[in-house]
Automatic annotation (TrEMBL):
UniProt domain Nudix hydrolase: residue ranges: 2-126
Name recorded for this polypeptide: ADP-ribose pyrophosphatase YjhB (NUDIX family)
Entry keyword set: Hydrolase
GO molecular function, one term: hydrolase activity
PROSITE patterns registered for this protein in UniProt: NUDIX, NUDIX_BOX
Species assigned in the record: Ureibacillus acetophenoni
């Protein structure tokens, strides 16, 4: 079985809020996640991250730094801290799996129904430590 590979964007605004998308297949419960998706053939993880943010939110971002890689036997996800450099907030997902886009506070992340609940504490840690992340 081939390992699924993708990228996820950690985008935090000046108020310390995290960019999140409400997603799911039409028949599924809709859950929140950071903008993310699968890597296409010939694409780097960085290119995947930038493309997914644009497709899911309308924002143009640049990579600030690579944060971590989450992997097991089936999945490999590269997490990147990103910064918005253009675009405008709008759903334009070609897969039509995005239902809402919102900036969420740490308190909201604590109880938000997440697509990847195992990421909850990591997302909150990124938000709390955002100033340290951007200063290196």
């Amino acid at each position: 079985m081939k390992k699924w590979q993708g990228a996820s964007a950690i985008c935090i605004n000046k108020f310390g809020e995290l960019l999140m998308v409400l997603q799911g297949k039409p028949e599924e419960e809709k859950l929140w996640a950071s903008p993310s998706g699968g890597k296409e053939l010939g694409e780097t993880f960085e290119e995947c991250c930038i493309r997914e943010v644009f497709e899911e939110t309308g924002y143009i971002v640049e990579i600030v730094e690579k944060l971590q890689v989450k992997q097991n036997d089936f999945v490999e996800v590269h997490y990147f801290l990103v910064e918005i450099i253009g675009g405008e907030l709008k759903i334009q997902d070609p897969d039509q799996l995005i239902y809402d886009i919102s900036w969420k506070s740490v308190d909201e992340i604590k109880t938000l129904p997440l697509s990847f609940p195992e990421d909850r504490y990591y997302l909150m840690e990124c938000m709390v430590n955002y100033e340290n992340l951007t200063r290196g």
